[in-house]
Design a protein that fits this description.
Elements: H1 2-20, H2 24-31, E1 38-39, E2 50-54, H3 58-63, E3 65-66, E4 70-71, H4 79-85, E5 92-96, H5 102-112, E6 117-121, H6 124-130, E7 135-136, E8 145-147, H7 151-154, E9 161-163
Parallel strand pairs: 1-6, 2-4, 2-5, 5-6, 8-9
Antiparallel strand pairs: 3-7
Length: 166
């Protein structure tokens, strides 16, 4: 009985805390360590010579992703697979997820693998779409749908169609 009460109270306080975060900067400040430098959408002038890695799950990637990005996932991330795809340790790599939390964790792993120029896309695919940047679905067709991970993160998407599991 005590454990059940503890679980309910923990869920209540956690959900209250999450809902209290009303901006991407607040969420990133709360959840991230700042161990991977951010790059903002406005700082990306050209997509040439940038390797975009999508640190979301396949179901999210299939809804939409930055064109020509490589799905590396989060739960099933495989560093060995990445090293076979990106051989140049000095390549400019931008990792993204929905808003920039999971991508920092994957970015940390890439830095530990010896990659030197790894950046976390500030605000993730949500911010990318908020700036009217092109995204495509799994058929490489331009789309306005963005998988926002969950309902809580969907509030940060100002442009586009929100998709998430209920």
């Amino acid at each position: 009985m005590i454990l059940k009460i503890f679980v309910y109270l923990s869920c209540f306080f956690f959900s209250t805390f999450v809902f209290a975060q009303n901006s991407i900067p607040q969420v990133l400040k709360q959840w991230n360590k700042g161990s991977v430098p951010y790059i903002k959408v406005t700082e990306i002038k050209s997509k040439t010579n940038i390797v975009f890695l999508d640190a979301r799950e396949p179901k999210e990637f299939n809804v939409s992703h930055i064109e020509n990005s490589i799905a590396v996932g989060f739960n099933q991330f495989d560093g060995k697979k990445v090293t076979t795809i990106i051989k140049d340790k000095n390549a400019l790599i931008v990792v993204y997820c929905s808003i920039g939390v999971r991508s920092e964790i994957i970015g940390d792993k890439l830095l530990k693998l010896g990659y030197k120029n790894v950046f976390n896309l500030y605000g993730g695919i949500v911010e990318w779409k908020n700036y009217d940047k092109k995204i495509v679905d799994n058929k490489k067709t331009e789309t306005n749908e963005v998988h926002t991970y969950n309902k809580e993160w969907s509030i940060y998407l100002k442009k586009g169609i929100k998709v998430y599991e209920k």
